[in-house]
Amino acid sequence: MKPRNVLILPGWQNSDPEHWQSRWERAHGYTRVEQHDWMRPLRGDWIARLEEVLLSCDGPAVLVAHSLGCIHIAAWASHSRNTHRVKGALLVAPPDVERDDVRQMLPSWAPVPQHQLPFKTVLFASSDDPFCAPERARQFATAWGAELLDAGPRGHLNAASGLDDWPTAHDQLQGLMRW
Q1: What are the tens digits of pLDDT across the range 64-96?
Q2: Phi and psi (nearest 5°) for 59?
Q3: Which residues of 65-85 are buried (b: 16+ CB within 10 A; e: fewer)?
Q4: In the chain, helix, strand, coil percent, each to 5?
């Protein structure tokens, strides 16, 4: 699989330079799906942008999402006719956008799509994520048909979690790329 066909989907406010997504992008040549507005994300705009980037890939893609990027993939998959172009997805720390405090920050993102994703999916969740309770992450994994992996008490699984290059998750990604 071509590294440029690994599509990085950051969440709200993008991923900073020390985030594991940014580190992977620099180290491996993966492609970040840039959004028009990282601060006020609109679900429809983000879905359209993913579709555009996916259609520009010259082969199958693997999606790598953090936070809102996970909801982004589920929402995109419920509307796209091009899901066959995706081999797999690595989802990390999905936020519960139906929770009142999160919904206020991201008003256009509820409800969370509750359908099985049509490609192999692995979901990492933290036991103390401030944006998603472990039970809710389990519900997402079940609905999406994802294999759920417990990352332990690591917060939102971002740069503040101290994951650096996060080799455990990268091993999972490499498995999806070979699948």
Answers
A1: 999 999 999 999 999 999 999 999 999 999 999
A2: 160, -175
A3: bbbbbbbbbbbbbeebeeeeb
A4: 40, 15, 45
Report how far residue 36's alpha carbon sits from residue 28's, in angstroms, rounded to the nearest whole number: 24
Q: Which two tokens stand for residue 48?
A: 């359209």
In this prediction, residue 179 has a pLDDT band, given cuts at 50, 70 and 90, of: confident
47, 77, 114, 121 from 155: Cα distances, Å: 27, 27, 24, 21
The CATH classification number of 3-178 equals 3.40.50.1820
- Residue 65's nearest CA partner among 82, 86, 81, 45 is 86
Closest to 66 in 3D by CA, of 90, 82, 44, 85: 90
Alpha-carbon span 18 to 13, nearest angstrom: 14
Strand spans (E) along the chain: 6-9, 31-32, 61-66, 86-92, 120-125, 147-150
Paired with 3 in beta bridges are: none
The residue extents of the domains of the chain are 3-178
